Amino acid sequence: MTGIPTRRIAVYPGSFDPFHNGHLDIVERCLPIFDEVVVAVLFNEEKRPMFSVDERVAMVRGLLAERFPGAPCRVESFSGLLVDFMARLGARTVVRGLRAVSDFEFEFQMALMNRRLNPNVETVFMMPKEDFSYLSSRLVKEVYGLGGDLTGLVPPSVLALLAERLRPEKRP
Ligand code: PNS
Q1: Which of 1, 8, 107, 116 has the largest CB neighbor count within 10 A?
Q2: What atom of ligand 1 comes closest to residue 40's alpha carbon?
Q3: Would you state the pLDDT for residue 4?
């Protein structure tokens, strides 16, 4: 990719297993800044995600349509290198949420490796709302599985999906 692209496309990649309110907060912060936001869901079946990539894509599509109707955002899945996916889209900005200093080392490595793989790719870090600064998909699954209340941290539609997987005994 050469030159300055006319459309500023942000790619927000992740496993999103599942998507939670911290992720929604990052998308919301991107919308006024970029012409388009592409949520890129990693196809990572070898990591044995709770939700398949198709389920995660459908989950995020539903949430974005509900929360940001008509907004220039879409959801795609990808496998292989993120920079290759971005080149196919004509995108040069990766957006990642940074919650705490503990995130920094891994994010720094990824940002520099992606830049090494494609010098046109820049990574932009965004801080989610403080209320979500401790939230992770891993904790969501653990806490919900142990019976904890996640109201306000996870959208109701995702809570319903978690209930099917983690609390099947409570199904009507
Ligand atoms: O939500 P996650 O699991 O922290 O997201 C990690 C993700 C998807 C951003 C990262 O694993 C990734 O980009 N994977 C694609 C493969 C790739 O490009 N690896 C090199 C990155 S330096």
Answers
A1: 107
A2: 8
A3: 65
Tell which atom from ligand 1 comes closest to the C-alpha of 78. Answer: 15
**Active site amino acids:** 23, 47, 99, 137
Mutate to test the pocket of ligand 1, among 11, 16, 39, 42 (most ligand atoms within 8 A of CB): 42
Q: What is the DSSP string of 18-70?
A: T--HHHHHHHHHHTTTSSEEEEEEE--GGG--SS-HHHHHHHHHHHHHHHSTT
Q: Ligand 1 center to residue 84 CA distance, Å?
A: 12
DSSP state of 4: -
- Ligand 1 within 6 A of CB of 112: no
Q: Round the CA-based radius of gyration of the chain to a whole number and report it.
A: 16
Q: What is the pLDDT of residue 2?
A: 55
Residue nearest to atom 19 of ligand 1 (CA): 81
Is-above-0.85 flag for pTM?
yes
Q: How confident is the chain (172 residues) per 10-residue block, as mean pLDDT?
A: 76 98 98 98 92 97 98 98 98 96 94 98 97 96 95 97 83 49
